Structures are given as structure tokens and as C-alpha cells.
Give the backbone structure.
Amino acid sequence: MNISSTAGAAGFAIDPGVPLVDGIISVDGAVLVHRPRTEGWRIKASVYDAQQAEVPQAICWHSEGQPATVEAGFPRPNRITHLAGTWLFGGVYNPQFGHFFSETMARVWALDHIDEKIEGVLFFPAYTTYQDMVESSFDDLFSIFDTRFNWKIVDQFYQVDKLIIPPQGSGIKTDMMSSPEYRAYLRGHIRDDLAPTGHDKIYISRSEFIEKRRSILGETALEGLLEAEGYLVFHPQNHSLADQVRHYRSARHIIGPDGSPFHLVNYVCGADTNVAIIKRRKSIEYRYMLDQTRWFQAGTGIPLDHCLSYWAPAGVRRAALMMSAEVDFAAMAQVLLKHGMIDDAGPWQALDKTALEADLKRFGASMGCDMHQVRGDGQSLADVPLLANGESPQVFWR
């Protein structure tokens, strides 16, 4: 159908129980505008109709109240290139793992609900360096999908004969629970023929991330405790996307600090999986992940909220950007024992102060700065000297 670009208010909030399929619209002669040199979390990018009015249904969002695109302005007609055929509007191409699934793929669900032939899916690039990543992003995706689609980055001003614009079916924060169509699309198209691994217990680790930040303290000690219980310590950044799917789908017990790997866990795991997510920062992101587990029917979501203190490096403008947590392993073990995820809670103990300080100094050494205990997400350490003694990292208790 064709609908006036003035219909519907520009806003975004997903009710995960409400279908979006009736909100698909089409615009004849649509013009897609992405301004050169605009990049980052909020870009200048718009879709206009043939009357040069912005189409509000094509505004892209990170989450409610956080637009990913702002109006770009209609270009001079002599700068517009004609792109023949009918295309699907995909939104913003963001290569970062969690955002690729939650935002880049947020409108592609409509491929299961349109009958007409399309040339492909059009995406605005979030970064001007997209050429370095875009081929591998979609190749990785198609390695785990049972279907493919043509895609194209909007690298100049285009006018298409017809643009199909589906509502955005996913986002971050509360919107990662997603629409019914988005959940069905991922569940229905991620391949089920990938060979199992034989590992039914997995710990998703952050200990080998290049930057020692945004993790939990004493993680290597935790890995040792879990290895004694038969867990495979899994570093997803060292594995292909297909291999990640194989591991997660094979497992019946999955534990890890909250983070983007749990998107894929939630997309592929079954109802008989225990998914235990460790809170690692003073925020509720881990709760969003657990809500996503429930809506995707990925098993039993188990919250592990046992933080004792929070830490951030000197120099950070907001503690939440690089926050790590001290976790009470003994308390965590009791929850894991209750859910049958471990057999013996005896060896599990909270880190003593000596071990905690040693790990904090390792964190600090990897970043070249002191570590400070912080009260909350918004605390700033921007005016704090990186190294108070000018030499080696120190630990400052509140």
C-alpha cells in the first residue's frame, strides 16, 4: 500500500506481544539521503517521499527516546541517482555485534511477509569506514542463516521506484525483547543443521578481551571453579559465528557476565537451557538480557546479582563506560547449586582483599591507570590523574 508520509507519529517503543506486520508501508519514488561524513551513534539520514516530505516511519531508533537517525535535509535534485526497482528499507547498518542483530536486522523480518520481488535491502551506514566490515558482517550472518538476501549500502543519494518500509522490530534496552515477527524470523532462519559440539556446560568469558575493562574481577578464579564443574571456558571473539551457534545450541547450562554474546544465546537456545547471567555493572542491562531470554523462549533465565563493589579506571568521563564489579562467588554458587548448574558450592568463596587488589592492579596495568571504587554509573573520573604516583597503577578504595 501507499501511505502519506505524514501518517503516524514519529516515535518508537516495542510491545513484544503486539504484531507489526500491518504497519508495513510502501512509498513510490522514495529518496534515501545519508549525509557524507556523518557517523556514530546518531547520523544524519532520512527517507523522503516524492513530495520531498520526510517519512517518519523510516526514522531509526536505538531505543525509546534515543533516535539513531536525525533529519538529513533533502538534497539538490542533480545529486540524486536513480536506483531502479523495488527495495526494502533495512535501517542502519551497524557492524558492532549486538547492534548488528538488534538494529541492522530489525526490519529484515519483513522478507517473510512480502510477496513482491525486491532488488534487495538498503541500509544507511553508521560509520564511514563501513567498507572495511560490511562484506564480512553479512557473510558471517549468511553462514548461520538458511536463506540469503541482497543488500546495498546507501553510499550516495538514491531515488528508488518503490521502497517498502517495515516497522523496526527490535532495538536495545527494553526493545531487545523484539516484535513477534522479528523473533519468528531469527528463530525460523538460523540454521538447525550445524553439528553439535558435545559441550553441555559453557562459561562465556570476557577474560581474553584485548581491553581489560567492563568485566568482573577475579574472572580467572571463577573460570577455574567452573572448569572443575565440567564447564568449557568459551571466548566467543575467537570463534566464527557458526561455531558460536554450535556451542550455544549444544549447551544445557550457560553462564557468563552480561554482554552481547547473550543475544545469540537467546536467539538459538531451546526451552531446556539454563541461562545464568552475571551482573557486572551498576545497571539493569543484565535484566534486559534475561527478559530477552524469556521472550525468545530460550530457556530458564537465572539472574546472578551478587555485586559487592564497583570499579572504574582513572580518566573515564563516566564510570559506566568502563565499569567492572567485585562479585560474591559464594553467594553466586548457592543460586547455581539450587538450579542444578553446579554440584559443589564448597570451594566457592568471595575474593579476599589481597586477591581483589591484585586483579585490580592487573586491570589498571592493562590500561595504564589507577583503579577507583565508584558509587554509581554517572560518577566521573575525568579530572583524576591517570597515575597518582606517576609510575605504577594503584587501587583507591572509596
